[in-house]
Specification:
The complex is a heterodimer of chains A (about 325) and B (about 325).
Chain A (H helix, E strand, L loop, with lengths): L4 H31 L4 H6 L5 H10 L6 H13 L13 H36 L4 H15 L2 H15 L15 H35 L2 H8 L4 H39 L4 H10 L3 H29 L7
Chain B lengths: L6 E12 L2 E13 L4 E5 L6 H8 L8 E9 L2 E2 L5 H7 L4 E4 L3 H4 L6 H12 L4 H14 L5 H5 L8 H13 L5 E5 L7 H18 L2 E6 L2 H7 L2 E6 L2 E7 H6 L4 H8 L48 E3 L2 E3 L15 H5 L1
Parallel strand pairs in B: 3-8, 3-9, 6-7, 7-8
Antiparallel strand pairs in B: 1-2, 1-4, 4-5, 9-10, 10-12, 11-12
Helix pairs in contact in B: 4-5, 4-7, 5-7, 7-8
Classes of the chains: A mainly alpha (about 325), B alpha/beta (about 325).
């Protein structure tokens, strides 16, 4: 069902569209990094470096070349999967990213799962009881969830569940490949902290979409045909709301990736987020650029999957 | 007329609950539909004809509407019928089709799935039998390649095909009564005629009674045997179509008929009824049409019950003394 010709064409078309997105995003970040004050070569050379040494470094790293040449060189290497080496550790950036990638993914996937597992039932409950006290309670709570800063929630969670009660580890992470159970154990609190906003988003979007569907004319037709309210909700309501849900998941996944940067810092998790923060502070530009490149590709891949799922859920999405 | 009507509506009143209070949308609506009869309800937008139709199947939102009176159908009062019983009436005994077939069909299910689930709700049949019956139903409403349409989604069909599919869904369980709420209004003129012919044909074949809700007097003249005129939430006239068209007894019916455009009347002024329907909040206590009526007298300020006059039932203080014109004849139009 998934691999028919129109779908493959859709994938091809999307991939072509993604090229300018990748170029633009990395170009902007590259440009921003060049705007950071201070002489990069002087920083790299360290304290008490001679003028000759700084000039040598400038030469070695190609910092004398025009901006566009530097960017072009980086991009050319990047498409060949060479994200160059870290200024700091001299390790290949790609290796570092691949090493930390699973930790961040576990966190984001956990947060996405929690957002849906909690948000979807609450959203359905609020929509089917629209206007009731339950609905008011759920909607107010989700407004609260949207407004809640996740780093603050993270600290409260750590203070309560780790420091006071000792249920979960307060910081750090374990590699999933080494110890799956321990990895999940470490990811629980950060995932919850990251998911709070996501739950609220899912509840609000799902509630309003489902209310609109349940008051639509075609639902009135379903009642007029004699269908039971439960068949109308679970069969027709859910299939129609799946389109909205897919959109929310797509937006959420990108947002959670961004949110992971902050959460990883709070929990001292060695993921891609904390990596990019540290790299930005010490002006380790290849690492920053590499992480941004990876994130952009990830977001694009998520969107591609969502686009494909649209074609399954909603027959109106044309597959021309 | 046979003595046992299929549907007997008595004193049906619908009110909307708004901000603590309530307003009457319809009051004291009474009419009957005989088995196999074709009855039209006509009136301007907002006169209460659509909600009257919806209330018969309990399709008005329970939280914001209140329905009083009774609607007897096969020994059961449809007003206040519990959902468990109402579900066996809906789609099985009484079906309803709507104005806009695009928004009335679920966009993410195929036509076949939407017919099939109706069949399987009311009959114990397996999927294969349901499919066969659904394709049969699609063929019976004049859809050229029923098997293909069965597996199509609503957006893949034209407006006329969608309304045919809607009719197939409504009639697949061979109901006793079909409520058609403006079924042709959203369609092209040529398609309108086809759909009307189809409805007439099917109702005759299955013996299904038709309750045609429309503002289009032309549709009623073509399809119905009896015509109920509603104004501002009340029935003002209930009469055989032939008689009502030629010699209406209520000034409002007459006004509606006079404002029908004629092709031959090109260049001539089209008569219209001056003024507007009173709003639900400040409904006059007397005749509701009085303010717009050319024949009003002082007596019209008092409430008037609906009364029999020959084959007509009329709600007018001056019934019997007024001689009102019906639809424009060609001779009049030419003059």
């Amino acid at each position: 069902m998934l691999a028919n010709a129109p779908r493959l064409r859709l994938v091809g078309r999307r991939l072509v569209q993604f090229v300018p997105v990748i170029v633009l995003a990395t170009f902007v970040v590259f440009g921003l990094l060049k705007l950071v004050p201070g002489d990069l070569a002087a920083t790299l050379a360290g304290e008490y470096a001679t003028e000759e040494r700084i000039a040598q470094i400038r030469q070695d790293y190609g910092l004398n070349d025009p901006f566009l040449v530097q960017y072009g060189r980086w991009l050319w290497n990047a498409v060949q999967l060479d994200l160059s080496r870290s200024f700091q550790s001299n390790e290949p950036v790609l290796d570092q990213i691949l090493h930390r990638f699973p930790t961040t993914m576990l966190l984001v996937a956990g947060a996405l799962l929690i957002s849906l597992a909690v948000g979807v039932p609450l959203g359905i409950l609020a929509a089917t009881n629209a206007g009731s006290r339950l609905d008011v309670a759920v909607t107010s709570l989700s407004s609260f969830g949207v407004a809640l800063p996740n780093f603050w929630l993270a600290m409260i969670l750590v203070a309560t569940f780790s420091l006071s009660w000792g249920w979960f580890p307060a910081t750090g992470a374990v590699r999933f490949s080494a110890d799956p159970q321990g990895a999940i154990w470490h990811a629980v609190l950060p995932s919850i902290a990251l998911a709070a906003g996501g739950i609220a988003e899912v509840v609000r979007q799902l509630r309003s979409a489902l209310i609109e569907i349940l008051s639509s004319q075609y639902v009135r037709t379903l009642y007029a045909k004699g269908l039971s309210p439960s068949a109308i909700l679970w069969k027709h309501g859910l299939k129609n709301v799946a389109v909205t849900l897919l959109t929310v998941i797509g937006l959420l996944a990108s947002r959670l990736l961004g949110g992971a940067v902050v959460i990883e810092a709070v929990f001292a998790i060695p993921g891609m987020g904390s990596m990019v923060v540290r790299a930005a502070i010490v002006k380790d530009f290849p690492v920053v650029q590499g992480v941004v490149f990876t994130m952009v590709i990830l977001v694009i891949a998520i969107n591609l999957v969502i686009d494909l799922l649209y074609t399954i859920v909603d027959p109106r999405v044309a597959l021309k | 007329m046979s003595d046992a009507p299929l549907l007997d509506v008595r004193g049906l009143g619908i009110s909307f609950l708004i901000g603590g209070g309530s307003v009457h949308a319809t009051q004291d609506v009474s009419f009957a539909v005989q088995p196999g009869e074709r009855v039209g309800i006509v009136g301007e937008s907002g006169c209460g004809k659509t909600i009257t139709g919806l209330s018969l199947l309990g399709l008005l939102p329970a939280a914001t509407t209140r329905v009083v009176g009774q609607a007897m159908f096969e020994g059961e009062n449809l007003v206040g019928l519990p959902l468990s019983r109402m579900r066996h009436v809906r789609g099985r005994k009484i079906s309803m089709i709507f104005q806009e077939p695009m928004s009335a069909l679920d966009p993410v299910f195929t036509i076949g799935q939407q017919i099939g689930e109706t069949i399987r709700t009311h009959f114990k049949v397996d999927k294969k039998q349901a499919r066969e019956r659904a394709i049969e139903a699609l063929a019976s409403v004049g859809i050229p390649s029923p098997a293909r349409v069965h597996d199509s989604y609503p957006h893949q069909l034209s407006g006329g095909m969608r309304q045919r599919a809607m009719i197939a869904i409504a009639l697949v369980c061979e109901p006793r009564l079909l409520i058609a709420d403006e079924p042709t209004t959203a369609l092209d003129v040529t398609i309108q005629a086809q759909i009307i012919d189809l409805l007439l044909d099917l109702s005759a074949r299955q013996g299904t009674a038709l309750l045609f809700i429309t503002h289009d007097l032309g549709v009623i003249a073509e399809t119905c045997t009896r015509m109920i005129t509603m104004y501002a939430g009340q029935v003002v006239e209930d009469a055989p179509v032939d008689s009502a068209l030629v010699r209406p007894r209520h000034p409002y019916t007459s006004g509606l008929l006079r404002s029908l455009p004629r092709l031959s009347a090109r260049g001539a002024m089209l008569p219209s009824i001056a003024g507007r329907v009173p709003t639900l909040r400040d409904m006059p206590t007397g005749c509701r049409f009085a303010e717009r009526c050319a024949h009003r007298q002082e007596a019209c300020a008092a409430p008037q019950a609906i009364e029999q006059e020959g084959a007509h039932q009329v709600r007018c203080w001056r019934q019997g003394e007024l001689v009102l014109p019906g639809a424009l004849t060609d001779r009049e139009a030419a003059a």
